[in-house]
Each structure stands twice: as C-alpha cells, then as structure tokens.
Amino acid sequence: MKYVIILTDGCADLPVEKLGNLTPLEKSNTPNMDYFAANGDIYLVKTVPDSLKPGSDVANLSVMGYNPLDCYTGRSPLEAASIGVTLADNQTAFRANLVTLSDEENYEDKTMLDYSSGEISTEESRALMAEIEKELGGGDIHFYGGVSYRHLFVWENAPESFTLTPPHDISDRKIKDYLPSDERILDLMKKSEKILKNHPINQKRISEGKNPATSMWIWGEGTKPALNNFYETYGKKGAVVSAVDLIKGIAILAGMNSIDVDGATGNIHTNFDGKAKAAADALLNEGADLVYVHLEAPDECGHQGDAEGKVRSLELIDEKVIGYIKNRLDEAGEDYAFLVMPDHPTPIATKTHSREAVPCVIYKKGDNKGNNIRFIEKDAQMHGTVISEGYKIMSIFLDK
After folding, report:
1. Dihedral angle over CA of 235, 37, 282, 262, nearest 10
2. How many whole angstroms separate alpha carbon 359 and alpha carbon 347?
3. Percent of the chain scoring above 90 in pLDDT
C-alpha cells in the first residue's frame, strides 16, 4: 500500500463576496478531491490546540502525526534544520523575514505593505542577508540566508520571553502596535532598514516595478526541538516534497527524506508538475511508503487576499498533482490511499491564519461509497467525523 498526503496549505476559507458568496473550495473545479469525498471518508480535523497559535508549524506537525503539545518548541528551529543550522542548547532561533515597509521617516510610523517583499528571489535575498550578517552579525548573534523572503536569526543566551508578531498577520496595518517587546530585536530591525534602504538590489527592484526589501522583521522564536523518528513511530518510510523551509525542517528532524524540486517556489507559480513527478517517483522508484506533498499556493493567495488565485491554485493542485499521482499509481497497479486536507484556514477576508477545524478526506483505492458530498467546508462540517486532536489523523490514515 502506498500512502499519499496532499497538504493544501491554508485552503479552507469563509464565503467570499467576490466569488458569489462561495468559499474558494466551493468555487473550484476539483473533480479528484470531490471524487475522494464522495467515495471515501470525510472528517473535520482540529489541527491547532487551543493553547497554541494557528501557524503552519503547529498545524503541519499535527497532520504529520506529532502532538504539538508534546514536541513544539517554536517555528524557527524547524526552519533552521532545513538549511543545515544545528542549534546549541543555549541558542534561540527566530524567523527573519525581508519585508516591504512604507517610507515614513520614523520607523514606528511605517505600514506593513508586503510581508514577502514581492516574493523576492532567493538569490537577491541571500545577498541582502549576507550584507546584514556582515554589518550586524558576530558574537552572540548571526543571520543565515534561507529561501525567498524567509531567513534565520540565531541568538545565544537570549531572554526567555518575547512579544513578536508574524508580519503576515499585519498586512496593510501600521506597525507601531506590533513592534517587538525586546529592545535589541527592535534595534536590529531598525538598523537593517538603514542597510537595505539604498542597497543596489533594492534600487534595481524599484526600477523594475517590484517591491524592495526595506527591513528585516524578526518573529517566530524557538529553541532546539526533538521529534520522534517517523519510521520508528509509524513503520513507514516517509518522503516530503515542499518548497518551504519549515516543512523541510520537520521532515529532516523526523528522519524523512526531504526532496528538492527545481522551480518549487511555494506560490501559485510553483512547479506543480515537478512536485507531482517527484512524489510519484519517490513512491514507485525510491522505496518510499508514504509521501507528504506540501503545497503552499492557497495559503499565499489567502495572505494576499487573492480569491481568484486561491481558486486557480486549488484547480492546479487537483489536476496537476492529485490527478498525476493517482494516474501513476493506477498505471503501476499499486494499492494506495490518499489523504487531502489543509493545515489551517487562511481566509481571504482576514489575510491570516485561523484555528477553525478543517475538512479532510481519506480515500482508499476501490472505495465506492457514493456519498452526495464534495470536498468543501460545509459538507465536512455537516457530515464529517470530528477529530478533536489533529495529530491522531495520521494513525487513522495508516490504520494504526
């Protein structure tokens, strides 16, 4: 039996006026997901415990079968693992986004215009982070380049508590009320603006009509994590296909194979075909029993308030990823099971994550239940079996 998890990041939503008061899932043409829902088992899964924030870190740990209440130590340590940074026991890791702020003279008066600096390229952003490391790094603090706008800040013997806000939670808002509580972190952010403001890379981006990376924004703190080995826990050799450092880091810490795909970007312009092929190849040619395909595009569209893009991303996932993998497994004569779900909602209306339970479908080859339901929020709410501890969905999927 081959197991396929399709993680449609942030795809759950609320009705959107621009879509005729339908959710993006309801508006989308997704015949494969709907076939699974009609013939498989539908669930409503709470992936985020009440005591934790609704981030992709917590929610993806749940879907991967890890109880975040037992193992979660923060987001950035997971990302550190993905770029080869091993944390010491006395180090705290932070996410360092490159963001676009408005150009008021006083830092406190600025507005968060773009949490991703126009989805700045990895090549450009790593050069900017290298400059920040040169100017601000050393001693007990260091900065490391990641992917696109997502980077890493590591601090030895940092204070134990912080008030830090994810930049994607404050799109189009004045930053004054969301600045870090720690004066050193705020000082680093302000100094980064002076380094970045007139950097040639940013001047070039402005000339090309792109958003410049005008400041570093620090958040998502955490300490060295420890995850149980996935194979030892579930008895399946796992592989993960993702463009996102966070998910790659979870895979590495769990002892799963993290597969890189050329052109995988984490947005709607990602290489869907390449991701699907890599997943199928892992199952059919490389000895994987289970593959976790993480698709960030619906989440990014949610953060940007792009309803039509979210619909399109779901249709591309259904056609190019689910359809392709299913066809490859059918052609190979393999028995298989699919699990399709988001990690959390990212509503168009709020442009940020929320903690509501999400729809989930499990379909096993040969299932033919003939239910009159689709893979949409309201059908899961009406007909789905409620899983209040989200990490248990992995055991259900694997019949453990």
Report:
1. -130
2. 14
3. 92
Residues whose CB is less than 8 angstroms from the CB of residue 98 and which lie 6 or more positions away in sequence, other chains included: 116, 117, 120, 125, 128, 129, 149, 151, 196, 213, 215, 216, 217
Please give the span between the terminal C-alpha atoms of the chain, in angstroms, as a whole number.
14
In this structure, are residues 79 and 152 in contact, taking their beta carbons and an 8 Å threshold? Answer: yes
- The torsion angles phi and psi of 304, rounded to 5 degrees, stand at -90, 0
The amino acid at 186: L
Q: Which helix (H) or strand (E) holds 359?
A: strand 358-364
All CATH 3.40.720.10 domain ranges of the chain, comma separated, are 2-72+226-397
Output the CA–CA distances (angstroms, integers) from residue 136 to 132, 159, 292, in the order listed.
Answer: 6, 19, 38
Rg (CA), the chain: 21
Rounded Cα distance between 130 and 47, Å, is: 36
Enter the DSSP assignment of 168.
Answer: G
User: Helix 183-196 crosses helix 122-136 at what angle (to 10 degrees)?
Assistant: 120
Residue 206: partners with Cβ closer than 8 Å, 6 or more residues away: 212
Q: What is the pLDDT of residue 248?
A: 94
254-273 per-position pLDDT tens digit? 999 999 999 988 889 899 99
Q: How far is CA 83 from the centre of its chain?
A: 16
Residue 125, Cβ density class (10 Å: 0-12 exposed, 13-18 middle, ≥19 buried): buried
pLDDT of residue 226: 83
pLDDT at residue 188 is higher than 90: yes
CA dihedral 224, 228, 229, 230 (to 10 degrees): -120
* Options 3.40.50.1100, 1.10.10.10, 3.40.50.2300, 3.40.720.10; CATH of 2-72+226-397: 3.40.720.10
Helix orientation angle between 122-136 and 200-207, rounded to the nearest 10 degrees: 150
Please give the model's pTM, rounded to 2 decimal places: 0.84
Amino acid, single-letter form, for residue 188: L
- Residue holding tokens 């404050």? 170
Other Cβ atoms closer than 10 A to 387: 18
**pLDDT score for 267:** 86
Q: What is the mean pLDDT of the chain?
A: 96
- Burial code (b: 16+ CB inside 10 Å, e: under 16) for 87-114 equals beeebbbbbbbbbbbeeeeebeebbbbb
